[in-house]
Amino acid sequence: MREIRTAIDIDATPERVWEVLTDFEDYGAWNPFARITGQPNVGARPHVRLTPPNGRGMSFRPRVTAVEPNREFRWRGHLFVPGLFDGDHRFELEPLDGGAGTHFVHSEAFTGVLAGLLFRFVGDDTEAGFVAMNEALKRRAEEASAETGGDPAPNPSAE
Questions:
Q1: Kind and range of the H or E run holding 19
Q2: Running DSSP on this structure, what letter comes out for residue 80?
Q3: Which stretches of the chain drop beneath a pLDDT of 70?
Q4: 157 lies in some domain
Q5: What is the largest CA-CA distance in the chain?
Q6: What is the domain extent for residue 93?
């Protein structure tokens, strides 16, 4: 198994970070790494396009495996067939400062017959993409939080 794990602290509530993270339609306005169409619902198969800063982009349709509003969003994708090169992608939100802030963890575990070989080609660029997305998410969530005085707006996907 190979893993990429990145993290960032965000001065916004987990609810605010979740709202920004799961508003896929707005990704084009702030997210330099990912474009997603679909819904953040368990079992859904959204269309995901990832474009690392210095790498070639790729599109795929993972299956959403976990959605815990304000805490975790997770999907699993495969290259061609399961077991060849699989990725378990996770977004985790942990409250900080009594819930006033968020520790955001963005990770992916790669498994499969080709995991070691392919990771050498995509690992560094993918990690750079995660970091770029984390920093952009921080800016967007903190900006949105400042505009509303820290109170999260209702998010239909969290219901």
A1: helix 14-22
A2: S
A3: 149-159
A4: no
A5: 49
A6: 2-149
